[in-house]
Amino acid sequence: MKQPGRILLGLYCLLVAVWLVAPTIVVVPMSFNEKKSLAFPPSGFSWQWYQNFFTSPEWSASLIGSLKVAVVTAVFATVIGTLAAFGLDRMKSRVSGVLRALLITPMVVPGVVLAVGIYAVYLDTRLVGTMTGFVLAHTMLAVPFVIIAVSASLEVFDKRLETAAASLGATRLTAFRTVTLPLIAPGILSGLLFAFVTSFDEIIVALFITSPYLKTLPVQIFSSITRDADPTVAAVGTLLFITTSLVIGAGLLIGSRQGKR
Amino acid sequence: MASSSTRGAAIDLRSVSKHYGSFIALDKVSLHIEPGEFMTLLGPSGSGKTTTLNVIAGFTEVSSGSLDVGGKSVIGVPAHKRNIGVVFQHYALFPHMTVSRNVAYPLTLRGIANPDRAARMRKALDMVKMADFGHRFPSELSGGQQQRVALARAIVFDPPLLLMDEPLGALDKKLREWLQLEIKRIHRELGTTFVYVTHDQEEALVLSDRIAVFNQGRIEQIGTGRQLYDEPETLFVGKFVGDSTILRGAASTSGNETALEIEGRKVAAAKRLPNGAKPVMLLRPEKLSLARRGKGGQDRNTLPGRIGEAIYLGSGSKYEVVLADTSKAIVRSTLDAETFAIGDEVDLVFAGSDVKLLADDENADFTLT
């Protein structure tokens, strides 16, 4: 009957799922390796690589660097992206379509192309390896995510509520602050989380503009793994995997809750 | 919220026009509304009634003309400075605020603090009988309840003028009829000027002191419900307000009399149109009666027809009669009158004195949505 077909389909789906998730999951057992090797399968069990991550100055400096860059980036990208989304929403549709496409380009252009461009500009302006340089580059990359998230919640926002607020005595700014902003807050918050993650795990541009004085976590992972087979990388990978999943999960949850009321 | 008849603001629209590109939404509309009056703007969709409301509210700028509210010009004054209450068809309650906070919103904006704010909020909710729902969110209320909260929010800051844009349009008939009476009561208690937009002529008749009938961006007639029904000035008003039968035919006049010839039969009325316009006859359902074919009598106008539809209404019957020229007549008869069945051959009988003679107008057709 239908049974063989269903089993075949199930097997196929399982295969694809394993293929998609396996590389990420493989990192987890490797991080508990007893020996200083990245061989798979690992042997023995130990917490030493996690210990190493939190005690080694090199690793913790890069973690703090990454967090700083990501937090500042998230704030800037959210402010700029929200304003942009709001402007696009209130524009004539033909103009806004073109502008929207333009604002989304950092998401579409190959990372390497962007990185080379940014590096060329930074060399002249001495922004390589600086906090300002990282925040500028990452904000540019994160703004499209905020625009998309906030636009989605503006799409379901009933603009007639602003008209109602005006009739009750609210200026445009007051109406925005008391009515529009609270109602699109879920979109802004999910945009903020996406912006944070975009910066936190960005590697391509970071590799180009990094310096010994400012390294982000992904850069540190990359240089560590090219130098020696240090399982600390696997420990960091596991931690990143868990945090990113939580943050993105929260973002999606908040995003899907909007407009339900 | 002291009840006094001097609280309402007068409104004066003079020659107000609104153009959107080449489309004329309002064509030199002039309208005077007395303080404390309940004025309804009645018309089909796209007739300009909502545009007029939006112009008064300040949501739409006029292209030309003048607009005074309470004796002062409000041209160029933004909506948030006009101090006019507005109730929308879609309620427009703020979904992230409770009922209490929704109603307190205009008071907070005006810097009114507790306990005054709470007292006024409670009073407004009492007036719409929603006092027990303060802690609820709008999503937890029915449509009728939401609209009552919206009404409370629009009157809580004591505006001298309240605008309502088809506020009952989204509600079912029974609820609508009950809320109409509630709105009438609130109007009486407040003494505020009410301007009410609807496409429902029955609703307009129930609520209004006066009605302005809109068609294609212009006002066709302004008057009380009775005036519009008994003395329509245009064919559009006659057709839009109440049921009506329109008779068209080859016209001839002699002296003070106008006659129409319809499929070989002449009907006459002792009236004349002042100018050379093509006359049509308009008759209200209760001015028409039915008789078996050939028994209509000689002294009155008769037209042969066949019963197309017979509806029993409890208080009487309503008939649709198909005339010889395939046009339809609507007849309302009382309980004691003779009854007819579908397909019966009848004579439509009416007195010349009950005929409204109006100028024909091909723009008198309308669609309701």
Q: End-to-end span of chain B in angstroms?
A: 36 Å
Q: What summary fits the major beta sheet of chain A? A: none
Which secondary-structure class do the elements of chain A indicate? mainly alpha
Order of helices and strands of chain B: EEEHEEEHHHEHEHEEHHEEEEEEEEEEE
Number of helices of chain B: 8
Note the overall shape of chain A: globular
Q: Which structural class is indicated by helix and strand composition of chain B?
A: alpha+beta
How far apart lie the N and C ends of chain A?
Answer: 45 Å
The number of E-state strands of chain A comes to: 0
* Helix percentage range of chain B: 10-25%
Q: Shape of chain B, please?
A: elongated
Order of helices and strands of chain A: HHHHHHHHHHH
- How confident is the prediction overall: mean pLDDT of chain B? 89
What portion of residues of chain B belong to β-strands? 25-35%
Based on the structure, what is the oligomeric state of the protein chains? Answer: heterodimer
The average pLDDT of chain A is 88
Strand order of the largest sheet of chain B: 6-7-8-3-9-10
Query: In terms of per-residue confidence, which ranges of chain A show pLDDT below 50 for 5 or more consecutive residues?
Result: none
Describe the structure.
The complex is a heterodimer of chains A (261) and B (369). By secondary structure, chain A is mainly alpha-helical. Chain A contains eleven helices and no strands. Chain A is globular, with a radius of gyration of 22 Å. A six-stranded mixed sheet of chain B has the order 6-7-8-3-9-10, with helices on both faces. In chain B, strands 16-20-17-18-19 form a five-stranded antiparallel sheet, with no helix packed on it. In chain B, strands 2-1-4-5 form a four-stranded antiparallel sheet, covered by helices on one side. In chain B, strand 18 (316-323) and strand 19 form a beta hairpin. In chain B, helix 2 (99-109) runs parallel beside helix 4 (143-155) and helix 3 (116-127) crosses helix 4. The longest helix of chain B is centred in the middle third of the chain and has 18 residues, at 173-190. Chains A and B meet through helix 7 and helix 8 of A and helix 2 of B.
